[in-house]
Amino acid sequence: GNSVTQMEGPVTLSEEAFLTINCTYTATGYPSLFWYVQYPGEGLQLLLKATKADDKGSNKGFEATYRKETTSFHLEKGSVQVSDSAVYFCALSEGYSSASKIIFGSGTRLSIRP
Amino acid sequence: EPEVTQTPSHQVTQMGQEVILRCVPISNHLYFYWYRQILGQKVEFLVSFYNNEISEKSEIFDDQFSVERPDGSNFTLKIRSTKLEDSAMYFCASQLGDSPNQPQHFGDGTRLSIL
Q1: Chain A closest CA to B81's CA: distance in Å?
Q2: With CB atoms 3.0 to 4.6 Å apart as the test, which of A8, A49, A99, B37 could cross-link to B48 if both were Cys?
Q3: Does residue A96 register a pLDDT over 60?
């Protein structure tokens, strides 16, 4: 079945460092891809999405490009801030069908040192 | 911005007891979901709901689980006879339409602890 594999955490970086969190997926058809973020004590928030190959999703300085050839959707940010400390989930939706469920990766905990 | 709200934020229940988790989706949304996250594990899909019926359910969603939209605003998850392994964070989500361009909006979750 469809699945998402993402980089194990925790990841600890200094402020202003470059961030990459790797994510690869297995899917039949043409899934949509997402990054969700969970700040401490809060729910899941959609960070960015891409719905077709070569699309780039971006938000709050984060970017990810839908790479069909490598089945990847790596999350990047050029300069992280302490406020970016959170758990990041790569996810896919199986496309157009009634009420498409989301399949999540295991999450990567990111901690940013001042 | 409209939000999905879940109550209670934390529920502690004795094993074998029934529990109802409540969610108020965003008002004009049509698709509703429950997910759960056992501590330290992945967020897992439980069930999706549209047009007053279940669209899809996972293997986790056995006969002990049920969902209901009793009054057009609340969306509830009931666990009939709780087990220790039901301890988890339960997330409700709602979606305006069934399209990847319509994201699922999540609540802050209910932490369920079974003793």
Answers
A1: 26
A2: A99
A3: no
